[in-house]
Known about the structure:
There is one protein chain. The chain is mostly beta strands. Helix content is 0%, strand content 47%. It is built from no helices and eleven strands. The N and C termini lie far apart (40 Å).
Amino acid sequence: xxxxxxxxxxxxxxxxxxxxxxxxxxxxxxxxxxxxxxxxxxxxxxxxxxxxxxxxxxxxxxxxxxxxxxxxxxxxxxxxxxxxxxxxxxxxxxxxxxxxxxxxxxxxxxxxxxxxxxxxxxxxxx
Length: 126
């Protein structure tokens, strides 16, 4: 059974930083294309950042490039999202997600992802 569990969300002031974690079981993250998405109230879920399983190339949403970083710890089977210079518009529920095993996914397309965590709330105050 696949399980993704996010943690690390919270309330932070604008300009601050947070690191989100995603603990995986039932999948080996380095064998899947993985990503972070977010959903703000009243808005659609949107892509934030992801890693292709082949070549480990990193893909960013334009608004996050330079502020957000993604990484994996293969020994711990963990996925991380480091968020710096946070803005109020970054407020959302953040989800980690994984595509099917060794599948080339359209990394920005949420419907390509099979496995999802329950989400963690990030709130940025001005």
